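Protocol step 4 of 5: obtain the predicted structure for the target chain.
Materials: sequence only (see below). No template structures provided, no constraints applied. The aim of this step is simply to have a reference model before the mutagenesis design in step 5. Sequence pasted as it appears in the construct record:
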Amino acid sequence: MESFLKNKIIEDIKIGDKAIFNKAIEEAHVRLFGELIGDVAPQHLKEEYAMTTKYSRRIVHGMPTPCLTRVPLPELVAPGGVTVQHNFQLKAPMCIGDTVTAIGEVVGKEQFNITNVKGTRNQIFVM
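Step 4 output (structure tokens):
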């Protein structure tokens, strides 16, 4: 994704436009997010404890995945675009080393520069 995004007008935005963002989740991301929100539960931060759980390894906090899926949207609707609703259903936990792939797609346009953008369901690929 470009550091500086080009300003767009409604005519620049086309149905079917897509943007993709990939992020591999690292140890530091989990620790920093836990510190930020105050969630230091052992299934996120303690390997020994996590080995005794259903997943047998540490899992990432739930909310970083939905946050990361928003990243491609500014590329589609230009700087200053605002999202007003997000709906997510997490199908499985993410673990350190997993990669989130977020795909945003313009699926509709309305007058007054309001654009409907669909983000695909969180696609988690273990690399």
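Step 4 remarks: Residues 112-127 have pLDDT under 50 and may be disordered. DSSP finds five helices and four strands in the chain.
Proceed to step 5.
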